[in-house]
From TrEMBL, chain A:
The keyword Glycosyltransferase does not apply. Residues 1-34 are annotated as: Disordered. This is Sugar ABC transporter permease. Keywords: Cell membrane, Membrane, Transmembrane, Transmembrane helix, Transport. GO terms for biological process: transmembrane transport. The keyword Transmembrane helix applies. Residues 98-309 form the ABC transmembrane type-1 domain. It is found in: Cell membrane. SUPFAM superfamilies: MetI-like (SSF161098). Its main location: membrane.
UniProtKB/TrEMBL annotation, chain B:
GO terms for molecular function: maltose binding. The lineage of its organism: Bacteria, Bacillati, Actinomycetota, Actinomycetes, Kitasatosporales. SUPFAM superfamilies: Periplasmic binding protein-like II. Belongs to the bacterial solute-binding protein 1 family. This is Sugar ABC transporter substrate-binding protein. Gene3D superfamilies: Periplasmic binding protein-like II.
């Protein structure tokens, strides 16, 4: 922390060469000094800590508490013990929505990460154009809801321009968002379209941190671009890639708005992702206790996945140097 | 980790997000919410009349779209920023009654006989108290493209006297088959018709109909003698397990397999509802509600006619007759003013004013007459919507199901009906959905 390092080194206790009395005084001075630092640190940390407590810690604890209650938000919560969790385990729609969510995450993250990596490498190896980087980011500047509605119109089976084109070239119209086989992949790809530029930019930043001389040395040794990608880029990008993966997987699990505006969970629950099911239970059916229990389950799932990802990818270590 | 926490517990935070614009003003202002933009001028005119009769009181009207309306209303109840008075829908009434967010309106002295039959009685809760004052009503009829009907050789008289049955579909099925045209110009009732390459469907799809099928299957199941629940109001058992219901639904969605009804995949709530399918010439007819009259009649390039719902096996036509009401919120800051405003909204004076705009049928007979006259002035014949209400001999009207747990019923029936229509799931599967619903109701 910058606060600790700001203490002048000359004031630190210098050992017992000056005798016992001095030592005593120095210790007291040091402890006063540390205390002063502590207070200063507390002042600096307080706003963040307050925000954390008010916006994260308290809602978390309250959410966990509510998951043990029957609560419709307008009358006081009533303690029901583990009832909501028992119901959740026995609720086929919950398990179904978890499966649908995982299916979405796999397609979304798989396609997005590979495409983003390709874009990032191309951006770094072929061009340094800021305009191009800006263009890549454009879909990300659009709100999810707007992107969802625009794609809903483009892909509409009967009237969408996308299907008009498909039909004009002689192929059968595709019910992208109205068919249970197509709906989840379509939503996953809509979100890839929106997020891929942002993910590519994060990876691009990671690529910038790889020293150029490594590539130069490889070139001197006669390595091809393909070989350099697998032997230099990938290993050295790993920590950044790991963090990007962790973040995007968490975000992907929380898909909601695109589903809400394009399919509303249909057809026949084919796109009833977990967040949408939770929302419906809470704000449609006023079962805030049950919705909280499912939210806690989602928290547990996400925490577990994050820990596993972190371990597997050794996100905290670098191979550089 | 921190991000994970935020996501999973955003729920607890949302309760805080609903705060913000305080709507209920208190004092001498009455806040009033409605969702239909077409009706805003009519109610603004009513508000003027009310303010003149009640010096010192002011009405502040807020209009927002159907979807936002209910989300915002829910949030406002949670945050304590609800309006004093709001337009209420029978589908939501049960839930609001459960949540105890409505103010009893017994002291308004609403006389049931002053309104079209059944409208006032629907707004009494299980506790016997009144929670809504009748405002308007709507029925369902068949909108058809006049040009396409003429090309198919169907006259208005023929379309006005269609009948159906679940065995061969009757004259109704024959008519929509005739209106269906495939890519090669062959009609649905002609030899060599290609049901997989349809250019114009005989009937637009309105989706799977969720739990009520208001503008889809309900005219058929009702004219076959079926009703949603065991009792007209506050029933304790749903009847989606009935053989009548299931066989009619099977026949109805079967029309799509024959190529006459547009398939489920052609329907999108936001992008391509039934009226858009008719407007774009992809469908020749559609069942739709009275609230859509102006929309169809003002569609460019569409010459539209209307016919009543077909006569069913019971020998009668059937249409849902749904009435909206105005309700006062329990936490209204100005209950006295709010009740005065609702009393005025339910009065013949205000309803005649609203009727004069020709956009909706008000609940009082005089208001309805004013609306019919106003539509006529615009050159629109609305008898397909009003006849079923006036003619009790040949027509039957029924209401939205009024029960507890309406939101749960909806969330169970919506995917189940979609499964039948979109995925061709056996209609007998609705029996287990019905069991689940009745289990919820029996809690």
């Amino acid at each position: 922390m910058t606060i600790a390092s700001s203490s002048p080194p000359s004031r630190l206790p210098l050992g017992d060469a000056t005798g016992a009395g001095t030592k005593q005084r120095t210790r007291r001075a040091a402890s006063r000094e540390t205390q002063g630092d502590g207070r200063l640190a507390a002042v600096f940390i307080a706003p963040a800590l307050l925000g954390f407590a008010v916006f994260l810690l308290w809602p978390t604890l309250r959410g966990i508490y509510l998951s043990f209650t029957r609560f419709n938000l307008l009358t006081p919560a009533e303690w029901v013990g583990l009832d909501n969790y028992v119901r959740m385990v026995n609720d086929p729609i919950f398990w179904d929505s978890l499966t649908v969510t995982v299916e979405y995450v796999v397609i979304n993250i798989g396609v997005q990460t590979v495409s983003a990596l390709a874009i990032a490498v191309l951006l770094q190896r072929l061009t340094q154009s800021a305009v191009l980087r800006g263009i890549v980011l454009t879909p990300y500047l659009m709100s999810n809801v707007v992107a969802g509605i625009v794609w809903l119109w483009i892909l509409d089976t009967q009237l969408g321009i996308g299907n008009e084109i498909i039909s004009a070239v002689g192929a059968d119209r595709i019910p992208f968002l109205a068919d249970e086989t197509w709906a989840i992949p379509t939503i996953a790809l809509i979100n890839v379209w929106r997020h891929v530029g942002y993910t590519a930019l994060l990876l691009f930043a990671g690529l910038q941190a790889i020293p150029g001389d490594v590539y130069e040395a490889a070139k001197v040794d006669g390595a091809s671009e393909w070989r350099m990608f697998w032997r230099i880029t990938m290993p050295l990008l790993r920590p950044v890639l790991a963090v990007v993966l962790i973040m995007t997987v968490i975000g992907s699990f929380q898909v909601f708005d695109t589903v809400a505006v394009t399919t509303a969970g249909g057809p026949a629950n084919a796109t009833n992702v977990l967040q949408y099911y939770i929302y419906g239970a809470a704000f449609g059916r006023f079962q805030f206790g049950y919705a909280s229990a499912m939210s806690v389950a989602l928290l547990v799932v996400l925490s577990a996945i994050t820990v596993i990802q972190y371990r597997l990818t050794r996100a905290g270590q670098t191979d550089l140097g | 980790m921190v991000t994970a926490l935020t996501g999973a517990l955003a729920l607890s935070l949302v309760t805080g997000c609903a705060q913000g614009d305080s709507v209920s003003a208190g004092g001498n202002t009455v806040t009033y919410w409605l969702w239909d933009a077409n009706q805003l001028p009519a109610y603004q005119a009513c508000a003027k009349g009310f303010e003149k009769n009640n010096p010192g009181l002011k009405v502040k009207i807020t209009q927002m779209g159907w979807a936002d309306y209910w989300t915002k209303l829910t949030a406002s109840f949670i945050a304590g920023t609800e309006p004093d008075v709001f337009t209420d829908h029978i589908q939501k009434f049960g839930q609001f009654a459960d949540l105890k967010v409505l103010e009893p309106l017994d002291d308004l002295g609403i006389d049931d006989s002053a309104y079209q039959s059944g409208l006032a009685a629907n707004w009494k809760g299980q506790d016997g108290h009144r929670y809504g004052a009748p405002k308007d009503w709507d029925t369902v009829a068949l909108f058809y493209n006049q040009k396409m009907a003429k090309e198919a050789g169907l006259t208005a008289d023929q379309l006005n006297s269609l009948s159906w049955n679940p065995k061969d579909g009757g004259t109704f099925e024959k008519a929509i088959a005739r209106l269906t045209v495939d890519k090669n110009g062959k009609r649905g009732d002609e030899e060599g018709f290609d049901k997989n390459n349809v250019k114009v469907y005989g009937m637009a799809t309105g989706g799977a109909g969720d739990a009520d099928g208001q503008t889809t299957w309900s005219p058929f199941v009702a004219s076959a003698g079926w009703n949603y629940t065991d009792k007209a109001r506050w029933g304790t058992k749903y009847q989606y397990d009935s053989e009548t219901f299931q066989s009619v639904v099977d026949w109805y969605f079967g029309l799509a397999k024959k190529g006459y009804l547009a398939p489920f995949t052609d329907y999108t709530d936001g992008a391509n509802p039934a009226n858009a399918q008719v407007a774009s010439g992809k469908a020749a007819t559609s069942f739709d509600g009275a609230w859509m009259i102006s929309t169809y009649h003002t569609t460019k390039g569409l010459d539209v006619g209307t016919a009543p719902t077909p006569i069913g096996p019971t020998g009668k036509r059937a249409t849902m007759m749904n009435g909206l009401a105005d309700s006062v919120t329990k936490n209204s800051r100005n209950k006295e003013g709010a009740k005065k405003w609702v009393r005025y909204l339910a009065s013949n004076e205000c309803q005649k004013t609203v009727g004069g705009y020709g956009i909706v049928f008000p609940a009082t007979p005089d208001g309805t007459r004013a609306a019919v006259a106003a539509y006529k002035k615009k050159g629109i014949d609305v008898s397909a919507f009003t006849e079923p209400v006036n003619d009790k001999k040949d027509s039957a009207t029924f209401s939205f199901p009024i029960t507890d747990y309406a939101a749960d019923v909806y969330s169970l029936m919506r995917p189940a009906m979609q499964d039948v229509f979109a995925n061709d799931a056996p209609v007998s599967g609705l029996t287990s959905t019905n069991d689940q619903i009745n289990l919820v109701l029996g809690q």
